[in-house]
Amino acid sequence: MSQYLSKIFIGICYGVSFPLTITVLDYWLKDLGISNTLIGLFSFIHWPFMLKFLWGPIIENFDIPLLSKKMSRYKSWMTCSYLFLIFGIVIMANSNPDTNVFWLIFGSSLVAIADGCKNIVLYPYQLIGKKENSVGFIASCVNLGNRLGSIFIKVSTLYVAHFFDWRTAYLFAASMIFLIMMINFVIEEPRKKFGNNEKFSLKRAYWRSFFMPIKKFLETKHSAKFLAIVGLYKSADFMMQKMSKLFCIEIGFSKIEIANIIQFYGSITVIVGSFLGGYAIKKLGLIRSMRLILTLHAVSFLTYLLLSEFGKENSVLTLIITLEALSGGAVTACFIAFFYTIAADLTIYAVLWALYELSGLIFMSVSGFFANFLGWRLFFCLVPMLIVPSLVVLRRIQLQKET
Predict the structure, then answer these.
(1) Contact (Cβ atoms closer than 8 angstroms) between residue 89 and residue 170
(2) Phi/psi of residue 96, each to 5°?
């Protein structure tokens, strides 16, 4: 039980920082009157987060001078990641996008880099006690924590921004992440130590911890199909996550209504969905669950047509969020379980996750353009079609496993 609680906490550590440069920032920019197209392009602010696989071998093989003598290599890298994360958030809080967008971009870049380092250091915790028949439940626990952290940071910052301002909201977020950092000092480390004491040159460290794992992964039988799933599985979800909340703002929902219905209620429903996803994996198997749940999630996107028909209506939005969040939580649980299956070590995890984030960055960045070009109704009709390539690849993976 304690292992699963620790994984929930690790998920919280993931969830409290990521929305600050994606979801929460989108609301801030929308408040400033920035167009959907530009808000979509602002997704590129998050690009440094994808590059964490490049410094992953450094984190794995090298100590931080002075600091690593006071604590383990693991704890020292984690401490630095959190401190730079907090520093970047404070810079964002004190920026003024109306007059000078540079400091917002600079602070967001620091947050993205530090967040990537933090995620690399936290990954080994997820694998403690992993067994073949437990990946679905572990994925659900991590996703539960991720959603809890995400609920808290998104809802709380929206409330603070509503009653005060965005600067206060981001300073509040920085203080909460500082508290999370302090709790990290008392959690148990994995038995398999992160990194080792053997001395490596930088070149050898990258060869041993970066190129060799990638070469080994690419030699596996289904590597090309795995890469396709990582890049495409959540493509429709990325576009909907970016634009659906902006659509809700455009038709008149307030920050408080969005915080209560989309962020709080929606995130709680996602948690329920994540456990349904874990249960489906146990009963149906991973690949079959991924196909079925992805299809249901795509169908849920069509319900936004109801909102475009009825306009600002809380009951309709609640119904839509219920369907989307239940299936979305299950989709995420399946995807995390898929990652546990194919990412055997830290480097492969970092590289594949970077591919996943690059895919998300691309789809989110163009989502505003397509929403403006197609119009909301056609956008909601066409986005679900993005799941078709993933369904085709998953079908082939299943057929090869059955033969």
Answers:
(1) yes
(2) -130, 90
Least confident of 53-62, 247-256, 273-282, 307-316: 53-62
User: Domain spanning 2-187+219-402 has what CATH number?
Assistant: 1.20.1250.20
What residue ranges do the domains of the chain occupy?
2-187+219-402
Rounded distance between C-alpha atoms, residue 236 and residue 122, angstroms: 28
CA distance 125 to 358: 24
- pLDDT tens by residue, 264-274: 898 889 888 98
What distance in Å separates the CA atoms of residue 131 and residue 90, rounded to the nearest whole number? 40
- How many CB atoms within 10 Å of residue 84? 17
In 3D, which of 294, 351, 374, 353 has the Cα closest to residue 327?
294
Residue predicted with more confidence, 188 or 130: 188
The residue assigned the tokens 């987060």 is 49
For residue range 98-128, list pLDDT tens digits in order: 777 888 889 988 998 888 888 888 776 666 5
Q: Is the pLDDT of residue 74 over 80?
A: no
Length, in residues, of the chain: 403
CA distances (Å), origin 389, targets 230, 312, 401 = 12, 34, 19
pLDDT at residue number 191: 57
H/E stretch holding 50 = helix 47-50
Question: Residue 218 CB: number of other CB atoms within 10 A?
Answer: 12
pTM beyond cutoff 0.85: no
Q: What percent of the chain has pLDDT over 90?
A: 22
User: Cα–Cα–Cα angle for 160, 103, 98, nearest 5°?
Assistant: 65
Q: Which amino acid is at 152?
A: F
Query: From the DSSP assignment, how many helices (H) and strands (E) are in the chain?
Result: 22, 0
**Sign of the CA dihedral 277, 292, 360, 351?**
positive
C-beta separation of 104 from 92 below 8 A:
yes
DSSP state string for 214-261: HHHHHTSTTHHHHHHHHHHTTHHHHHHHHHHHHHHHHTT--HHHIIII
For 117-150, give the DSSP string: HHHHHHHHHHTTT--TTTHHHHHHHHHHHHHHHH
